Fold these 2 entries.
Entry 1:
Amino acid sequence: MTDSSAPRWAVFGNGDFRLYGTARFLTGLAFQMQAVAVGWFVYDLTRSALALGLVGLASFLPAMLAALITGHVADTYDRRVVAALAYATLAAADLGLLAFAHYGTGAIWPIYALVVVIGTGRAFANPALQALLPTLVPRTLFGSAIAWNASLWQSASILGPALGGFLYALGPAVVFGTAALSFALASALIAAIRFRPAPVTERPPVTWATLSAGLTYIRDHPVVLGAISLDLVAVLLGGATALLPIFAAEVLHVGPLGLGALRSMPAAGAVLMAVLLAYRPLQRHAGLRMLQAVGVFGLATVGFGFSTSLSLSMACLFVTGAADMISVYVRQTFVQGETPDAMRGRVSAVNTVFIGASNELGEFESGTLAALIGAVPAVVLGGLATLLVAAAWGRIFPALKARDRLLPVG
């Protein structure tokens, strides 16, 4: 269990966690600036909801197709090196976007190709980083590390969209250049972490059993399976992020700065909730609180879909972020806290695919549905579907609903 009496800021006394957290902040900043720039750039070129959805699909496919490999790599090689090389790749991809924004002819396919490279880099970085975090801090500080890590990421997600929207006024190349610099700095910080894992004397053979061990572990642990699949289905159906350029341009009639403000709101809600969880971690009824948070997420999404006011839309997105943070906190604690270290990379890789499916594949789903029935009906129906999912998962996974403590006693 985590020690509820430990000061909630004590984790920052750990130098490796400071390096890790700073890198996460920089990459969160870069991803959000990049998302604003790519979304507005693609919509400006195409005026197509489907084109926005395809950006999410291009980002997600590498994580899905390479999940078994990326998890195996994270459990076999130095996770610091894997993450540092992945972030260097992301920096190079952003330099490619910079070059296209400056010299491009208006064709859309190079953007999708570079987004695939970005998705591949993330596919290797995420399992390595998720598996690395529990090894950097003592178990007594693990819950605090999860919450502060999420808070740093979400803080960057507040600043990133606003900064991206502001810099976009100077041109998309400026945004992509700034993102490339952030990724390069993050790569150097991860490489500087002092923690060194025990040397691998014998690498496991690459077999279906070793590659699929993460899937097997999740299947055999209903609480983990329920938590991961709940997030997958709920955000897949209820996410509205991909459609924010349409709402900004055609519903709320605001420009790139307004889009940046809208994209910042879920992160603002999430960072406030993450700080609250760092100071007052969940002590009881963890599974039930996760189900309730997903229900609130669905209600707030419905409110956003019906809103024609910028302030109300921002408030609804703020609530979605706060509710989602509770779900993320519970899920990540289950996944990272209970999985044996030797399998943590493979389990985290599968978790990454589920997260990607809920976010990037959810963007594709939202864009496709919006192209068929319109952006507003797509968001409202998605929010209603999320409410149904929250109710259904309590019955499908009774062990999740009944789970009391975040971590097992002992």
Note: The two ends are 6 Å apart (CA to CA).
Entry 2:
Amino acid sequence: MFSAFAQAFRTPDLRRKLLFTLMIMGFFRMGSFVPTPGVDSVAIGQCLAQQDQASLLDLVNLFSGGALMQLSVFALGIMPYITASIIIQLLRVVIPRFDDLHKEGQTGQSTLTQYTRYLTIFLGVLQSTTMISLARSGQLFPGCTADIIADRSVTGFLIMLIVMTAGTAVIMWLGELITERGIGNGMSLLIFTSITATLPAHLFSIGQGGGWGKVAVIVLIILVIAIAVVFVEQSQRRIPVQYAKRMVGRRQYGGSTTYIPLKINMSGVIPVIFASSLLALPPMVAQFGDQTESWVQWISANFNHQSAPYLAIYSVLILFFAFFYTSITFNPDEVADNMKRYGGFIPGYRAGRPTAEFLRFVINRITTAGALYLVIVALLPSLLMIPLNLSNTQLPFGGTTLLIIVGVGLQTVKEINTQLQQHHYEGFLR
């Protein structure tokens, strides 16, 4: 990995792309510390110092690099865009028009991207309204009496709403700039930047409060889990495909052997994000209810990262979304039809329905292993934190964190190696 970056910096074109990517990532981090007009930064600092338990909005705050709890101009981070992208993908199952656009190639993808942008702005408005309302009512930091927003006028509310929504649009634009002119996927790199920027601060606070021995243990756990994630993410089942020879005019096509690579974890980190988002809803609803009622007390007592009911529901949701999202992204019938159209077949299986049934059988077995792997990675950090007595401290890492960091790192290194190979070929041809 380090040799790939060293070679990339020695190549002028790749060096410009890497420096441009680093510049955009630095600008993104700077925006996370610029407060929204009307927000008292001193009061927020006091409330953050008084907060000794994990917040209900930790997932959103994680993807914003801590900007959410500071109510900065980039407070919403990349979360509205992630939510919009997932919604557009899920709508392909419900709305046939979206599925047709997905099959149209570059033109259809451009239209879906435009729909994603509009939905991102809409979700940005909704989430900004929610965050400002929580901050005004004092429920963003329960137990803190400091006045975060002094201006209660409608004009002040609209200014904050416009600024935070515009920050979401700027983040989306920055991500697209990295994708077009930099290295790697822009949105993924911005999430990577947000997560890795807050990790050292968490480790330092744990070292000051509980001793640096715990920090060493946590770093060792991170390394072991990261190695396991790399091993599984790189694993794949290769289905051999044979293409028959065919004549088109005077030219002969086909006769080659290739394979269909099926990753063990085809759904990526999406099931973990979905499950975390859904489990954040009950505590948020309970926060607005009467604290003396039994259902509110039960949710407050059982919906934490280390309780048995939370972990059980979390596991079931991850398993469900792993199968659900894989069924959306990989259609055995469509793959079998494409193979039959171009004269391809799997040795030992007839083209058409037998091929689709075989692919469905294989993908169900692979998805079972991938879903169990996601459950283990998602639960292991929380379970390992119990012996370290960090139940009342915000976890410095989690399953979502490690999956995103390792996945984005692998994807970026692969793209750097691909562009390095292209430069070597260009030099050879010249």
Note: The CA atoms of residues 24 and 174 lie 7 Å apart.
